[in-house]
Amino acid sequence: MNKHILLVLLILYLIGNAVQLYAQNQAPALRISAQLTDQTLPDIFQYLEKQYPLHFYYRAGELPQERFSLKVQEASLENAMQQLLGGSKFGFLLYRNYGVVIAPLELITEGFNAEYYQALETGLNANAGSTPAPNLLQIGDVRQLKASGKAKVSGLIQQQKDKTPVVGATIRVLKLDKGSVSDENGRFELELPVGKHQLLVQYVGNAEVVQDIQVFSDGNITLSMESAAVTLDEVVVGARAVDANVENVQIGATQLDVRSINKLPAFMGEADVIKSLLLSPGVSSIGEGATGFNVRGGEVDQNLVLQDEGIIFNSSHALGFFSSFNSDLISRVTLYKSIIPAQFGGRLASVLDVEMRDGNFEQFRIKGGVGPLSSRIAVEGPVIPKKASFIAGFRSSYSDWILQTVRDVDVRNSSAFFYDANLRYTHKLSDKNTLILAGYAAKDKFTYGDNFGFDYQTTTGQATLKQIFSQKFYSKFAATLSQYKSTQYDYSGLDASQLDNDIGFLSLKEQLSLQPRAGLQLDAGLSTILYQSLPGARRPLNDLSQVFAKSLEKERGLESAAFLNAEWSVSSALQISGGLRLGFYQFLGPKTVFEYQNEIPSLLNLIDTTVYGKGKTIATYSSLEPRVSARYRFSPAVSVKLGYSRTAQFINQIFNSDSPTPTSQYQLSTAYIEPTRSHNVALGYFQNFEDNLWESSIEIYGRAIDALFDYRDFAELNVNEHLETELLKGKGRAYGMELSLRKNRGLVHGMLSYTLSRTERQIEGINRGKWYLSNFDKPHDLSLVLNYQYNQRHTVTLNFTYGTGRPTTAPQGGYRTQLGVPVPIYSERNALRIPNYHRMDLAYTIGKDHRKNNKFKTSWTISLYNVYARKNAFSVYFTQTPFTAAQANRLAILGSVFPSVTFNFETL
Amino acid sequence: MKRFRYILILGGLSLLLSSCLDEIELKNQRFGTKAVIIQGRLILGAPSLIEVNVQRIGEFDGAETSVHIGSAKVTLEQTDGSNIDLQEITSAKLYRASIPNNHPTFKVRAGQSYRIKVSLLDGRQYESEFEPLLPVPELEKTSYTLQELTLPDKKGFLNKATYLSFWVNSKLKTGGNPDKSKLRWELNAVYRFTDDTRKLCYNFEPQRVDKVLLYDGPGLQLERLDTFYLADVRLDHRFAEGFYLTVLQESLSTTAFNYWNQVKTLAERSGSMFEEPAAKIASNLRSKNVGEEVYGYFYATAQDTLRLYIRPEQVGSPTKYCPQPPTPRIGPTVCDNCLLNTGSTLTKPNFWIE
Fold first, then answer.
1. pLDDT grade, residue B155 (50/70/90)?
2. Where are the beta strands (DSSP E) in A744-836?
3. Is B294 in contact with B285 (CB distance < 8 Å)?
4. Residues of chain A neighbouring B281 (CB-CB closer than 8 A)
5. Cβ of A884 and B156 within 8 Å?
6. pLDDT digits (tens, 9 = 90+) for A657-707
7. Selection from A75-84, A166-175, A459-468 with the highest mean pLDDT
8. Burial track B196-232 (b if 16+ CB lie within 10 A, e otherwise)
9. Are B23 and A887 within 8 A, CB to CB?
10. Residue in chain A nearest B291 by alpha carbon
């Protein structure tokens, strides 16, 4: 602190006399004569100031009370000061012979580094100049310059018209290879050397802002952006800093370039957030039409999918062909792969954080699109101009017309329908308080002839209050109420039945963010989620059905957590984001709990039951989850990152198939089903080339999972009150290497990613206790996206993916029963692989025109999905009848090329 | 706009070509082992009968390569330790014992449990778990209806044809037993067949061996079975001269039912993404040799039998198979000699009453 005050004193002087200093610097050295005895130091300093062109800077309260003498004749200023202060505990600091700072010796002798003086010089020279240029913004005060010679610039990006924050704008410091992205409050931070810089601010849908700045010390800047048709694109998100690859402290974090989603070739033209994520290294799925995605060897239920603060349990439409996110409404998409900040918890492998955007506070706008299977529309505008806005989006399918053209009667009598709807209301209660109310509803209905059907829906309501207590202290409180319900119908036969599942939750989360000083941000908070689930209820569908009506008891669990995360810039090179999450889980009554002999769940060991009353705790678990990610930047273009996280999961999806069904129940941790836990580590090397034109990275990761379970052979999972008897407990491990190469700009740009990985389990009772492959293990996974953008409107995109065929269990022999029924003998679990997967897609995008006066913009995306019509195997199954030879068959979900055209429109 | 419409239609058409099945080959789909399969069934009767197959495993590539292992010692044992040896029937490639009710040392009764032990010539030994023999509920009636169905033929092609759908009426409980039974059915047919030489044969033919017919009495809500559907049999020349359907109803223990249910599950797999993964069927046989797996199952059962005679005129008097139109032929056909039919005999079954 003293050091800073000392500097302030010095700089005050320098600023005030900058021009004069320059002139005096050229003058002969000053000679001092004085005959002063028994006087206080302030008196002596005042005398000298009167006699000579000197300025003394000191804190009077710190100076000694004793009296001093100064008797010199034609002495240099330095000698005079040495005589005066020699033997005392105080020293002095001269600057250009005219400024004298008096301070305790320990401060004076500490010294300042070269960067400081260079910065000081820069600052002074700038200050010494004439009137600043009109476009030059001065930030800070050179009197507050830090010893490092660097300053922290805190900024706010806002819309010119309504002053709403711009989320996800990129801020690039030209010539410095530095940059940042504005956060959800439109804020950003940059650490810059003192001096002049030029900022380039970009945000899709807005005109670029080029701003000259002159940095003296820490300070704030506010930049306004203007809507412009010139750069308006399909999805108004661009959330990557130009050097984010190297700069970001969080290893394994992937920010999706949502702008590019609509340009990617998509199945039936439906732009898809989650399918786009599959192009990232470390992210894969088991095949087309499969629900969910796998991250770094994690099951699909190990991903926490968030829409703002609300958990989305089923993010798939049409059984998995499409995701349930309407890309027109998205602000930012971030995927944290295994190394997860402490703010997030409850899942082992990843967090997909999808942030929705606010509606326009100034004007009404409409966006939409029409595709062969579905259409979408989004409307936004002010409710109270500049104060309250809304945004509403709706998507719906109309795929039945295709099904009607099929000859097969069952297909013709089938139906596949979905919709999703979003409504978000944002109200600025004051300059510092914002209330957001959001609702989301999605529904799917799928029937296959008279045979079977699925029906599932999600309903979510959220309220979020954002408060800014000060520029460096703000809070976000969110309350979410959500319900997911699913039903499976078997229409025919004696088994005609209806199977219902549901899970709902109420979550509360308070997060405080504090920036106590430059380079340090603290995020702390509490969260709690009360789950209530119906694991399963089955009832006969008609009078002929012989199925027993059966309903399991509802289950309740309370998952709470306290977290603290600090992001600390130790130096310009080293940045650490670390924290701790304390999780606490309770499995609550009312519930009848079975007791097994020796606590080994088996129907043969069933000995008793215990009935727990409402709210009674049946089982508790806690978790201590340290999280850390560190980045060391060797140069502006090279960094190394290292991360570790401990994660715990108290809820699992129960499914024993390749892909979860919509009715795969969500099972809370119980006395017998322990929470799964994982140690996750990652190490990465990141390097950019040619002014961030090229980005490259290599990451290696490892995961060790405890209490992982798998299923017994022929496990009975539906409506089973003894579910624990069908699970076998063990452990898992996953490790791999992820390579990524990206070209960000140019006529041809794109991305290449490759993952080499292994995912295994060791479960007692499966494969004789040996390690075996998970059914989504994919050793080689490659994605290539190439964009040929020959002008601002026209883009051709090529997408190629290749992956090793996933493991499967296949018959390796067989016999026949005495009557002749063929009985295959299957291999050990997941011992063989289905054929490798590869696919190429093409898309041609005709973007919007760039005329500013055109208020109605249209664009087209023409896609060819699976260009060479490869029949990629989703699964392999085996047939053998008494009359035919045994045969392996592959089921190709999409065995043909899928052309599509999507028409998009937008009003300005 | 017109072009846009064409593209939409093209998109729709392409979907029709989408989901598809193809035959493929998988790498490493061979065991490379000589695992042993043991299948045995003890049927309560007068006399009771036990038959056991001991085989070496076959490859799952279409070839029927399961090989009978001869000269084994096969023993049926009760819980009290009494036992009886089975004799090898070389012609039938199995081991068999017929146990009269008045056997002095070995009684086969409902409510008892039995197991088998097998010793091979090379010293390898196997034994099963004890399996309870449960009484079987009374099979009261069997019937059929005629209907047009589109079903796969023996070559797997879908064809629309007339079928006989067979139904049964049965109790689900035995005596004063309050518990319902788990049931399995076998369908065996005998039909008369006259060749061009006017020779009269009776052909024994198991029906719908591609199906495992099961009913989980305790797991389903019916208290008895009334016109319970079993299977469809295509109406063809087999019904032209008289057709007997024999329905065998077996009682199964829980473990035996689970075994057959797993066989059924594997037989009915379709490769759907939502299908539970296939797995090895659990056997109740154990090898005494460390690390060796053994497959198959042994169970004990009681059976109830009903036969249904279907006269040709009841099903529209289908055309006889013979004579066939003259075509170039190599060697004799079933029309030259009806005994060439698999399972054919000149002996009229003793239950055959027209």
1. low
2. 748-763, 771-773, 780-789, 794-803, 807-808, 811-816, 822-826, 832-833
3. yes
4. 823, 825
5. yes
6. 877 888 889 999 999 999 999 999 999 999 999 878 899 999 999 999 999
7. A459-468
8. eeeeebbbbbbbbbbbbbbbbbeebeeeebeebebbb
9. yes
10. A768
> What is the per-residue pLDDT across A780-797, written as a single tens digit (0 to 9) for each?
999 999 989 877 788 888
Number of Cβ pairs closer than 8 Å across A and B? 240
| Block residue for tokens 């495992």 | B212
Question: If you ran DSSP here, which 8-state letter would residue B352 be given?
Answer: -
CA separation for the pair A227, A224 (Å, rounded)? 10
Model confidence band, residue A275 (pLDDT cutoffs 50, 70, 90):
confident
- Comparing CB atoms, the residue among B53, B64, B282 nearest residue A713 is B282
> Measured between CA atoms, how close is B43 to chain A, in angstroms?
13
Are the C-beta atoms of A367 and A392 separated by less than 8 Å? no
Confirm or reject contact between A453 and chain B (CB < 8 A): no
Residues in chain A: 908
Instruction: Please give the full DSSP string across B92-159, using - where no structure is assigned.
Output: GTEEEEEE-TT-SS----TT-EEEEEEE-TTS-EEEEPPEE-B----EEEEEEEEEEEEEE-TTS-EE
Band of pLDDT at residue B13, cut at 50, 70 and 90: very low
A372 close to B (CB below 8 A): yes
**What separation in angstroms does the CA of A600 have from each of A576, A605, A669, A722, B85?**
44, 7, 16, 12, 39
- Which neighbouring-strand residues pair with B244? B190, B309
Integer Cα distance of A538 and A231 in angstroms: 54
Decide if A659 and B57 are in contact by the 8 Å CB cutoff.
Answer: no
Q: Which of A290, A881, A890 lies closest to B210 in CB terms?
A: A881
pTM above 0.90, yes or no: no
Residue B137 is encoded by which pair of tokens?
Answer: 């509920």
Query: Using the beta-carbon criterion (under 8 Å), do B280 and A713 form an inter-chain contact?
Result: yes
Q: Do A899 and B21 touch (CB under 8 A)?
A: no
pLDDT tens-place string over residues A412-423: 777 888 999 999
Query: Between B13, B14, B62, which is nearest A885 by CB?
Result: B62
How far is CA A264 from each of CA A798, A842, A871, B9, rounded to the nearest angstrom?
8, 8, 21, 22
Short-list B136, B167, B152, CA closest to B300: B136
Pick from A724, A725, A723, A728: nearest CA to A711 = A728
Beta carbons within 10 angstroms of residue A304's beta carbon:
21
pLDDT tens sequence across A541-583: 888 788 889 999 999 999 999 999 999 989 889 999 999 999 9
pLDDT tens digits for range A23-37: 334 445 678 888 888
Find which of A140-149, A394-403, A837-846, B44-53 is predicted with most confidence, using mean pLDDT: B44-53
| Side chain identity, residue A740 | S
Total residue length of chain B: 354
Asked if B16 and A821 come within 8 Å (Cβ–Cβ), the reply is: no
pLDDT tens column, A348-369: 999 999 999 899 988 899 999 8
- Residue B19 has its nearest CB partner, among A268, A818, A893, at A893
Q: What is the DSSP string of A166-183?
A: PTT-EEEETTTTEEEE--
Query: Residue written as tokens 């308070």?
Result: A510
Q: Measuring CA to CA, which residue among B207, B299, B208, B206 is closest to residue B258?
A: B299
Q: Are the beta carbons of B14 and A897 separated by less than 8 Å? A: yes
Cβ atoms within 10 A of the Cβ of A725, count?
21
pLDDT in tens, A94-136: 766 667 777 777 666 554 544 555 555 555 555 444 455 567 7
Suggest the residue from B21, B24, B26, B89 to mutate for an interface test with chain A (most A CBs closer than 10 A): B26
A868 touches chain B (CB under 8 A): no
What is the rounded CA–CA span in Å between residue A775 and residue B281?
19
